[in-house]
Write a structure and sequence with these properties.
single chain, about 220 residues, alpha/beta, eight-stranded mixed sheet, two-stranded antiparallel sheet, 7 helices, globular
Length: about 220
């Protein structure tokens, strides 16, 4: 079955404190986004690559590809004002059926095992949501203060959130809502049941300078 990696990279890097958007910041010698894309081509060299970027970042990306001799066939799609709109634009660029991995451009350490888990679940159940167990204690903020909650009842959500193309395209025909924080919430709101699969602990989202250092450490140790 055809595989499509829909990589969403619309960040401006505000929390990173850098002028360059975080997806373009150098990580172990090349932009974060290139590491992310290569996770998918190493999983399947025939995967179709769709990259959603703000229109004013197209030239930046093309220049970086030239500078780093990065020649993978990436189809660029213009992003929208919100993540919902950006993902919708990306999905509308996909023709035909297949399995689509919707992934954050700043998660460059997703493992082959996670991608396999996602693909197999999407083929069997129509979708897959990679998650990781919560290891820290949690507290719920309430009107009178806070209260302890059972962390075993919760999971940390990662990407790629993975779907049969037609199913997630249909879900994204809904009006946008503030409730939609990720693709799984959109899919679930359309009446579907979400299937959880194991993610990998290294699959962090690079948002701050600390995250960048952690990612570089993982790369140096071969994770």
């Amino acid at each position: 079955m055809k595989k499509i990696a829909l990589i969403v990279a619309g960040g401006r890097g505000l929390r990173m404190g850098a002028e360059l958007p975080k997806q373009f910041i150098a990580l172990a010698g090349k932009p974060v986004l290139m590491w992310t894309i290569e996770c998918f081509t190493k999983f399947d060299p025939e995967v179709e690559l769709v990259l959603v970027l703000p229109a004013d970042q197209f030239e930046v990306w093309e220049q970086l590809c030239s500078d780093h001799n990065f020649n993978l066939p990436v189809h660029l799609v213009e992003g929208g004002d919100t993540r919902f709109q950006s993902v919708k634009n990306g999905l509308e660029s996909i023709n035909g059926e297949g399995i689509v991995f919707i992934h954050d451009g700043v998660r460059p350490l997703v493992s082959k095992a996670t991608l396999e888990n996602c693909f197999n679940s999407a083929v069997e159940h129509g979708n897959a949501l990679p998650v990781f167990s919560v290891v820290e204690s949690l507290r719920k903020v309430i009107t009178s203060g806070s209260q302890h909650v059972d962390r075993s009842e919760f999971r940390l959500v990662q990407t790629p959130q993975t779907f049969v193309v037609s199913g997630i395209q249909k879900a994204y025909q809904q009006p946008e809502s503030d409730f939609f924080t990720d693709d799984a919430s959109v899919y679930e709101a359309a009446g579907n049941t979400i299937c959880l699969v194991n993610g990998n602990q290294e699959n962090i989202k690079i948002t701050t300078p600390v995250d960048l250092k952690i990612a570089e450490m993982f790369l140096k140790t071969g994770c």
